[in-house]
Design goal:
Structural class: alpha/beta
Largest sheet: 6 strands, parallel
Distance between the termini: 45 Å
Number of helices: 8
Shape: globular
CATH architecture: 3-Layer(aba) Sandwich
Number of strands: 6
Helix content: 25-40%
CATH class: Alpha Beta
Number of domains: 1
């Protein structure tokens, strides 16, 4: 059974930190593939700051096309809004019964997982791969000894899409933080100005 890691995000824009984490998960865990699931609308984020769904998906497609085991996914574009991870996972299990899905998240998300809609369902059906992040707060007690949650020993990536958007708006040179084709697409489309 193929093991798929689901890496959810608005990817506004996708950057080298996202790619580094996805690649690390494929190379240093049991995962066979990582799907970068482009989220149309995160219930915790303001929608006005997001580029159109298909522009963000196109950036993820451009960034991942050199990687055999990292794929873009627009699955959430076709599901009811707003998107909740548990509902997307239920849909994926129904649609791809021959795959074993796991969730990839940062340490900051693990600390707030108990606030997610139907988080118990996620824990029942998915293993969770947690990558390290510098963040405040404690991991809730119920997640500390859970055998379905594993912290991956990986590089700490402190690049944020917000920083990149602000830097582009401020006319700063941040090309090393973006895949070459993503940078070219942003430049051509005049995004984040």
């Amino acid at each position: 059974m193929r093991k798929i890691g689901l890496y959810f995000g608005t990817f506004n824009p996708i950057h080298m930190g996202h790619l580094t984490i996805a690649n690390h998960m494929v190379e240093f865990t049991e995962l066979d593939e990582v799907w970068m699931v482009v989220t149309p609308h995160n219930p915790f984020k303001k929608k006005s700051s997001l580029l159109h769904n298909h522009d963000r998906y196109e950036m993820v497609r451009l960034a991942t096309q050199d990687y055999d085991n990292i794929q873009p996914s627009d699955i959430e574009f076709h599901l009811p809004q707003p998107n909740y991870t548990a509902e997307t996972i239920a849909h994926l299990f129904e649609r791809y019964s021959n795959y074993d899905f796991s969730l990839i998240m940062g340490m900051d998300n693990l600390k707030s997982l108990h606030k997610w809609k139907n988080y118990e369902f996620i824990l029942e059906y998915c293993s969770i791969y947690v990558y390290p992040r510098i963040s405040d707060g404690e991991i809730p007690e119920q997640f500390k000894e859970n055998l379905r949650i594993g912290v991956v020993d990986g590089p700490i990536m402190e690049i944020s899409s917000t920083f990149i958007r602000n830097a582009i708006k401020g006319n700063k040179g941040i090309r090393p933080l973006l895949h070459k084709k993503v940078w070219e697409f942003i430049y051509k489309m005049n995004f984040y100005k």
